[in-house]
Structure formats: C-alpha cells, structure tokens
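Need residues for this backbone.
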C-alpha cells in the first residue's frame, strides 16, 4: 500500500466533515423534532448529536462534547428525553439529513454515482476505526448503515468526524487546555469558529471568553491583540499533528489512491453545499 502524502488524511477529513457538519446549521433537524414535540431549537443540536449514546445525562454530554458550558447542557438534558426518545431522534436525524442534503447538493447530485462512490470509499475507511476511548464514535458505529447512498455517505462522514473528534479531545486534555482555552486558541488560527458564533452557541459569556483569552496570554499562547504567538502556533500545530497520528488508521486503511479519490469527490460535494448556503458566511470570521 502506497504511503499517504503528508496531510492527505487531514485534507480528506476536512472536506468530508463538511458533509456531516452541515446538519448543525440547517433548520431541518429542528423542524423534524418540533413535529415530535421538542420545540426548543437550542436542544436540537444536543439531542441530535447525543442520541446515539442513548438516554444519557448532562454530565455525559458535557464530557463527550467538551467545549460547551455544562449549565447550558443541564438546562436541556435530560429533560429533552422526556419529550422525545433517543430512538425517535435518530429517525428524525436521518429524515432531516435527507432533506438537508437534497437541498444543499440538489436532487441530481444527491442521486449521482459520485455520491455512491464517495459513500463506498468513506465506509471502507471506517473499517479501521476503533471504539476504545472514543465514545461518540463507538455509539454511532453501533447504528445501522442507511441504505440510501447519500445517507450512507453522511453516516460514514459522521463516524469519521467523531473518531477524529474523540481523539482530538485527548490531545486538548493532554495539552492542558480547558474548553474556553481550546476554543479561543482555535479561533485565533482563523480556522476555528468566530467569537460571535462561540458566544452564541457554547453557553460561554463575554467575560468567560475574555478570561480564557487572558489565561492564554499569561501562558504565552496569545499576544495582547489575541493573535497566536510563535509558541501558540507551535501548540496548535502540535495538537493537529497528534490528532492526525491518532486518526491515521482509517485513511491508511483506505490507501493513498482511495484517500485522493475520496478527497476529490468530497471537495466537489462540500463546495456545492457551501455555495448553496450550507454554512453561515460569518462562521469563521475572526471577530
């Protein structure tokens, strides 16, 4: 098997993850859950992502999601499970994914042979994922693969996202970063979520955000202007490199040719999704 080019696995993940992550920015899941009686749109993300874990409490969600305020989660979980069961959420999630993908990709692309090929490649990559110490991946891996190719692709992208994400949390904890510090240092790279979206979605207020930034300044990670210092750049680079190492198996299993082809297909699909409004324009602006 040919050795993967440097950063090939990360590039593949980055474009494939967009196919998964678009569900969090679409109205479809909230609308499906509202039909079932869960009308609090703030709860849609949490139950949608946590449902594979079963009827878990706020502590488990805080532990596995990492960068959300626990009090925010505790206001929503486990009360939401009294309104809609995890099993019903999983069904709603697939219906929402179906409508979301048909909208952001278009009916012709959704039904294309390229989507079916991407699904086959991504599912092949997941064969080398491991469950140990990866709770969100493991929970999703216990779910059946959907029959429809576009839903199978989303399912595979979900597995690969959570597999890498679980590993990434290991690196953050190992680096001694708390949730706010992890978010703030990522935002400073220009690739993370903007301050506006962090404050809107993570249950973190402006004072807590500034306090986290101050801790990073004290540690030499951020400058006075909240830019990454050279030490901060090395920290983020090392975090991503270690995440790559922990997440190498599925892409090595797919092989260099398969990774290149999956990256090509997923790039085209994610580009189409972005052009069709899958993500907010200001999601990654540093403000």
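Answer:
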């Amino acid at each position: 098997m040919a050795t993967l080019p440097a950063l090939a696995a990360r590039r593949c993940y980055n474009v494939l993850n967009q196919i998964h992550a678009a569900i969090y920015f679409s109205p479809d899941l909230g609308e499906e859950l509202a039909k079932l009686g869960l009308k609090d749109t703030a709860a849609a993300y949490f139950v949608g992502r946590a449902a594979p874990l079963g009827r878990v409490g706020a502590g488990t969600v805080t532990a596995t999601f990492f960068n959300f305020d626990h009090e925010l989660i505790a206001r929503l979980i486990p009360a939401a499970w009294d309104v809609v069961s995890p099993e019903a959420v999983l069904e709603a999630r697939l219906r929402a994914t179906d409508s979301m993908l048909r909208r952001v990709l278009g009916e012709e692309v959704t039904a294309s042979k390229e989507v079916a090929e991407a699904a086959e490649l991504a599912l092949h990559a997941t064969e080398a994922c491991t469950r140990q110490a990866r709770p969100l991946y493991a929970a999703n891996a216990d779910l059946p693969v959907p029959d429809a190719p576009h839903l199978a692709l989303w399912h595979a992208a979900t597995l690969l996202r959570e597999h890498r994400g679980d590993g990434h949390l290991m690196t953050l904890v190992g680096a001694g970063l708390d949730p706010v510090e992890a978010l703030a240092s990522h935002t400073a790279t220009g690739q993370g979520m903007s301050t506006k979206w962090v404050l809107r979605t993570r249950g973190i207020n402006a004072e807590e955000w500034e306090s986290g930034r101050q801790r990073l300044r004290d540690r030499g990670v951020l400058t006075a202007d909240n830019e990454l210092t050279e030490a901060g750049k090395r920290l983020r680079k090392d975090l991503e490199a270690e995440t790559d190492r922990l997440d190498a198996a599925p892409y090595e299993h797919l092989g260099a040719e398969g990774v290149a082809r999956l990256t090509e297909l997923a790039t085209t699909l994610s580009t189409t999704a972005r052009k069709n409004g899958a993500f907010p324009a200001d999601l990654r602006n540093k403000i």
